[in-house]
């Protein structure tokens, strides 16, 4: 890989917002893009789909990783280091996430199980993966960055102001992500760490309900991946700063 290329790994990028972000990034010849997901077949299918598009110009590789499995994370780090060929990882986009909060889910599985399963991805897995990739990020001379895909739903300030108690588990997991991002930024001042809110999008996460097209919502992810923007730590949406 050319050292001039910006290496970017996007977790959960074989579908939804992650795939839309990867699609935007795949058009850029100065990018070495790593499409990442837990299912090897789906990741490969996503890469092949991107490469078939006429404007594809980036160098694209695959990384298979389940962020709920520590051994999978460590294997992914080793695989990425090999594929980088001694170069650094410049940008980690923590996009993988889920929402498991229909009334039927909670009644069937219980609130504790909903919390455990949601936090295992949105908080615990994201934190462990970020820590694992830090050594590769710190090799970067392009001011390494971690872009965490969050939600204004996780803003404690907004929750208190709106008095909206819905989606308690998902909101709590995104509040935890905010705390993780702040801790990463404070502990690693040489890494630019932000949380970005892409807004409500028509994806699997919200069962393809209402919202913007993922190609629009993912643009903020791409913008903060490609450039150092805002403060570290910082929380941003397309409209500007989001309160923690």
Question: Can you describe this structure?
Answer:
- With 244 residues, the chain is of the alpha/beta class.
- It has a single domain, classed as 3-Layer(aba) Sandwich (Rossmann fold).
- The chain has an 8-stranded mixed sheet with strand order 3-2-1-4-5-6-7-8, sandwiched between helices.
- Helix 3 packs parallel to helix 5.
- The radius of gyration is 17 Å and the shape is globular.
- The N and C termini lie far apart (38 Å).
- The model has no long low-confidence stretch (mean pLDDT 92).
- Pfam families: adh_short.
- This is NAD(P)-binding protein.
- One of its GO terms (molecular function) is oxidoreductase activity.
Please specify the SSE layout and strand pairing.
Elements (H helix, E strand, L loop, with lengths): L5 E5 L5 H10 L5 E7 L2 H13 L6 E6 L5 H15 L6 E4 L8 H7 L1 H27 L7 E5 L6 H7 L5 H20 L4 E6 L16 H4 L1 H8 L7 E4 L2 E2 L3
Parallel strand pairs: 1-2, 1-4, 2-3, 4-5, 5-6, 6-7
Antiparallel strand pairs: 7-8
Helix pairs in contact: 3-5, 4-5, 5-7
GO molecular function: oxidoreductase activity
InterPro entries: Fungal_SecMetab_SDRs (IPR051468), NAD(P)-bd_dom_sf (IPR036291), SDR_fam (IPR002347)
GO cellular component, one term: cytoplasm
